[in-house]
Design goal:
heterodimer; A: 308 residues; mainly alpha; ABC transporter involved in vitamin B12 uptake, BtuC; two-stranded antiparallel ribbon; 10 helices; B: 414 residues; 18 helices; 2 strands; 76% helix; disordered N terminus
Chain lengths: 308, 414
């Protein structure tokens, strides 16, 4: 495998990792602060993509439609919180799984009902189309760089928000010990709502960002949901820092694994065997990583809960 | 307690009534299933039997999951992996020409037990959400391994050469035989899981779910118990997978899809965890919903989805819980309703009396200004309680609850 291909794959992995982080950040906060398993987080990502496509159909302006889709995602997250999730905090994890699984079923099918089962597309805006040369004979699309840049900006903003604002402090405190925060007189319900809406918006943002480069279709959130769960479990539930590192790690390992695993195996296995084992091992690699991390550190790399 | 070891029912906490109730419900379900062939013959279609087979098979899978969730508190989000592994093991053996019961069934059981042992050894070390996620991860691994088995169909799945043969004869090809085999195995699983949950092993498991620290303190090592439960549940689900593969004469990675694992959890919850008939009812309800609604509209999930949400919000006991509540539901004027009313009245009276006593005690503990005033205060504090009790008692005779009155009298004498 050539160095240039490796670099391209590295960037692809980074980009996937950034997207995963956007989804996982909301998930890990909801998980950490409210102890709530939100399986429906993946469909919020899907909905973000659909909303962006629809908004683009109305406005014809990429940046305006991103803004509209973000607002709609936020609104939708808040409505979901108000109608369903609010009543499930502090209940058994099983009931949360049941309810959010029901929401997945509803939304996956509902999207099919509203927009049809056929994949939709959204054009890349002129400003971000084209590619930039990385080195001789190696160009990389501007839009993917834009995704990475936007993701890093959001991550930095999130870091500042969590570490140096009052609300961020409450979020961290909530992730460590929600009952104590409540006992100290903080309106924890409102904090939950804010965190939830914010997480939904981040997931929606990830969906909006991928709408131009992936096909927008029902069920697109399921795969990313599982990856996001792997990320937050590796990173340690409730930890933004852990989610970021784990997301990049998972993104890079998954992408590199898919492109290099067969080559790597071929160096010490017969080609036929490598061709069979390679793809399987590549798709398994992140789950293997997760199993190893959990076997060594059962609470993830950076557990947020002191007592965990 | 020599007799107790065996005698403690699955739902010991809620008394023997629940057990009998659970068994009655299960028996009803079995009878219903067993009469399906008659119905299907009168309708001259094998469709009902096919549905019945699926219900029985998924009921076995759901029961095995209930062993983990209900008794062990281990929410496995990768249980469908065992369905696939059981089916794949039997199918692979069959494709090499060993499709007889004496080889295929042990292969299916052993493969799923081995997978459970290997993955459980790591998974069982974790708790709660982490357990959910790590079982999901292992199931995903199994899914991808199966997808890459190019020699055995890969993504497209593996067609079995034929159904498993018994003593060289294709007995299971006969639909009625296969249906009754599924049903018999379901009943055996129901009884077996019940015995297991009621056994010493099951009680340790339930104890670990309730309070791990306390169980450790009295000398039980959680790890091995949980691992054993995981292996048993895994191989039971492997059995279901063996049957599922036999029914379709086909197996594909889709058997292990994570949504299938989610559906198994839903079956358990829909039916009601903590009971044994619940998971079976859940499997029945889920498959029936799927069958009927998917004929009605291809968008049946739009209906089932919100129904699940509503269930999680309002009816967390599941079907079994709802039936039990309906059974316990008391018609106005019935002895049960009266005794409940009495219970409430008694509760109110007792609470006030306690409050009065507390006040009195507080007054006594003060440096008494005068003993008489304290006594007066105590009496005053107790007055509302007495009044409430008397009101309750006056009301009772008119409600004509004789059993109730004696209860109250007994309580008064205390």
């Amino acid at each position: 495998m050539s160095a240039s291909l490796f670099i391209v794959q590295l960037f692809n992995g980074l980009q996937l990792g950034i997207l995963l982080f956007l989804v996982a950040a909301g998930l890990t906060l909801v998980f950490g602060v409210m102890d709530f398993i939100n399986l429906a987080h993946g469909v919020q990502y899907m909905l973000g993509a659909y909303l962006a496509v629809t908004a683009y159909g109305f406005t014809g302006n990429f940046f305006l439609s991103v803004l509209l889709a973000l607002l709609a995602s936020l609104l939708f997250g808040l409505v979901l919180e108000l109608l369903v999730f609010r009543h499930l905090y502090g209940r058994d994890h099983l009931e949360q799984v049941l309810a959010t699984f029901g929401i997945i079923m509803l939304l996956n099918q509902g999207v099919k009902l509203l927009w049809g089962a056929a994949p939709l597309n959204m054009p890349i805006p002129d400003l971000l189309s084209g590619s930039v040369p990385l080195m001789e004979g190696l160009r990389y699309p501007v839009y993917r760089f834009a995704i990475i840049a936007a993701g890093v900006l959001v991550a930095a903003g999130l870091y500042l928000f969590v570490t140096s604002t009052r609300l961020g402090m409450l979020v961290r405190a909530g992730a460590t010990n929600a009952a104590m925060v409540s006992a100290l007189g903080v309106d924890i319900k409102r904090l939950f709502t804010v965190v939830f809406g914010f997480g939904a918006m981040l997931a929606g943002f990830a969906g909006v960002m991928v709408a131009p480069i992936l096909s927008v279709e029902p069920g697109m959130g399921d795969q990313i949901l599982i990856l996001a769960f792997v990320v937050i479990v590796i990173g340690g539930i409730g930890s933004i820092r852990g989610a970021f590192l784990a997301a990049v790690l998972v993104g890079v390992i998954d992408t590199l694994g898919r492109s290099c695993m067969s080559d790597l195996l071929r160096s010490f296995l017969p080609p036929a065997t490598a061709r069979i084992i390679g793809p399987a091992l590549a798709s398994m690699s992140i789950y293997l990583l997760m199993a190893v991390v959990l076997a060594i550190r059962p609470a993830g790399l950076f557990p947020a809960k002191g007592r965990a | 307690m020599p007799g107790a070891r065996r005698g403690i029912p699955a739902a010991a906490a809620s008394g023997s009534r629940t057990l009998a109730f659970d068994q009655r419900l299960a028996a009803g379900l079995f009878v219903l299933l067993a009469s399906l062939p008659l119905l299907s013959r009168s309708m001259a279609s094998s469709y009902l039997l096919l549905v019945g087979e699926r219900v029985a098979i998924f009921a076995i899978a759901a029961l095995s999951l209930e062993l983990l969730i209900g008794a062990g508190g281990l929410v496995s989000f990768g249980h469908a992996a065992f369905l696939g592994i059981g089916a794949y093991a039997a199918g692979i053996v069959a494709s090499h020409g060993f499709g007889t019961l004496s080889i295929a069934l042990p292969a299916a059981l052993a493969a799923s037990a081995l997978f459970a042992l290997a993955t459980g050894a790591i998974a069982v070390r974790t708790r709660g959400v982490y357990f959910i996620m790590i079982t999901l991860a292992f199931a995903q691994m199994a899914f991808f391994i199966a997808s890459s088995l190019a020699a055995y169909g890969g993504d497209d799945g593996l067609s079995w050469p034929t159904r498993t043969q018994v003593l060289g004869r294709p007995i299971l090809k006969d639909q009625l035989t296969f249906f009754y085999l599924c049903l018999a195995l379901l009943i055996a699983t129901y009884l077996g899981v019940g015995r297991l949950i009621a056994s010493r092993f099951g009680r340790v498991l339930r104890g670990l779910k309730d309070n791990e620290t306390r169980m450790q303190a009295i000398g039980f090592a959680p790890y091995l118990y949980r691992l054993a439960a995981y292996v048993i549940a895994g191989s039971l689900c492997g059995l279901a997978g063996f049957l599922l593969g036999n029914q379709a004469e086909f197996v594909s990675p889709a058997y292990m899809h994570w949504q299938r694992s989610g559906e198994l959890i839903i079956m358990v919850l829909l039916g009601g965890t903590g009971t044994r008939c619940g998971p079976m009812l859940g499997a029945l309800a889920f498959l029936l919903l799927e069958e009927t609604l998917s004929r009605l509209t291809e968008h049946w999930k739009v209906i089932v989805g919100p129904a699940l949400v509503l269930m999680a919000l309002f009816a967390s006991g599941g079907i079994a819980g709802a039936i039990a509540a309906w059974q316990r539901r008391a018609a106005p004027g019935s002895p049960l309703a009266l005794s409940r009313l009495g219970h409430h009245l008694l509760g109110a009276g007792r609470a006030r009396l306690h409050a009065g006593r507390r006040t009195g005690r507080r007054l006594l503990l003060r440096p008494a200004r005068s003993l008489r005033r304290s006594a007066q205060a105590i009496r005053a504090a107790c007055e509302p309680a007495k009044a409430a009790l008397d009101r309750g008692l006056q009301g009772l005779p008119s409600l004509a609850g004789r059993g109730l009155k004696t209860t109250v009298e007994r309580w008064r004498r205390r």
